[in-house]
Amino acid sequence: MEAVHTHGIWIAERLQRTTISHEQLWLTITHIGDPKAAFLLIFPFTYFISKRTGIAVLWTAAVSEWLNLVVKWMLFGERPYWWIGESRLFVNKPPHVQQFSSTCETGPGSPSGHAMVTAAVWWVVVSALGTFLYSRTRSVTLASAPYLFYLVMLVSVGLSRIFILAHFPHQVIAGSITGFILGVALSHRVPDGRSLLFFFSLSTGLLLSTVMLHAGLQRLGIDLSWSIVLAKKWCSHAEWIRLDTAPFSSLTRDCGALLGLGMAQYWKPGGWSLPWAPRALSLAISSMGLYHVNRLPLPIRPPGLFYGLFFIKFVMVPQIVMVLVPGLVHMVTHKKRN
Q1: Catalytic annotation on 31?
Q2: Where are the alpha helices (DSSP H) in the chain?
Q3: Which residue out of 5, 167, 170, 214 is catalytically annotated?
Q4: Of 59, 75, 193, which Cα lies nearest the Cα of 117?
Q5: pTM summary value
Q6: Which of 34, 72, 148, 192 is deepest in the core (most CB within 10 A)?
Q7: Binding site members for substrate
Q8: Which of the residues 7, 96, 114, 214 is marked catalytic?
Q9: Does 167 participate in catalysis according to the annotation?
Q10: Which residues fall in a coiled-coil region (predicted)?
């Protein structure tokens, strides 16, 4: 793998050198590709256009990010920003690269979670949009436009991850291919209308099985904290290492969102039926609510408290989008109509 990693470093160096003037654009794209964006941005936007598509987005984001975590633990992928120093291959000719505020993620690097979740989630969105456009226009050209956007999105997110030294090119490619396959598979298996027991069992099962896998690997002498140690060693700014990028943060986000999805469908089966104007209002209020929920500061000590509160935060995401805000908007607009 040394040759593959070395070639990846030189690709990142060339990309930084030729596009450094677009640094802010790359950072914005990498934020759009963050798995967290699927829960906080794409999910509410799609839900208020099509309930089933919105549920499919949340479902696909949670399952694909969880699977990405498990695969990363199995593959022990390096990240460019620490491999440069650890490999000791660049002592005489160090690459002219720099780190950024989004560089220092602490989990293993392969496959890319940004690429994998983006490929899975956006496939759900563009396939639904493409099908809708074709059903209305019977135009293959117009219906193909979302798929072109999908390709551009994948390439852009992948390049942004290489640019900031978070991933090697082969990790981005692996994540994109895996995410595409997952998107195709999961979009046909949307748990719309499933029981609360199903979601509770799924959330608990994913959480416990992952914790047991972690404990089992630790007992076999496999130190899964190796990537965190390297991240702290080679990150150029200590404050860029955040607990919400740790592997267990992804796990608690996914399990919390799945449980929250089940609770939301239990409280209000079928969701609220709203005309387009109240839907737009619900989207605006939900987006503001999720923005402030995401910004809530959480104590990082002890870590168990942080992960518990992080879990609760993402349990609340579907409640806000699917039950609380549209219910409030329905109540207000219904009174006005009367």
Answers
A1: no
A2: 2-19, 23-32, 35-37, 43-47, 51-75, 80-87, 113-137, 140-163, 169-186, 196-219, 226-234, 247-267, 276-295, 303-318, 325-337
A3: 167
A4: 59
A5: 0.94
A6: 72
A7: 79, 161
A8: 114
A9: yes
A10: none
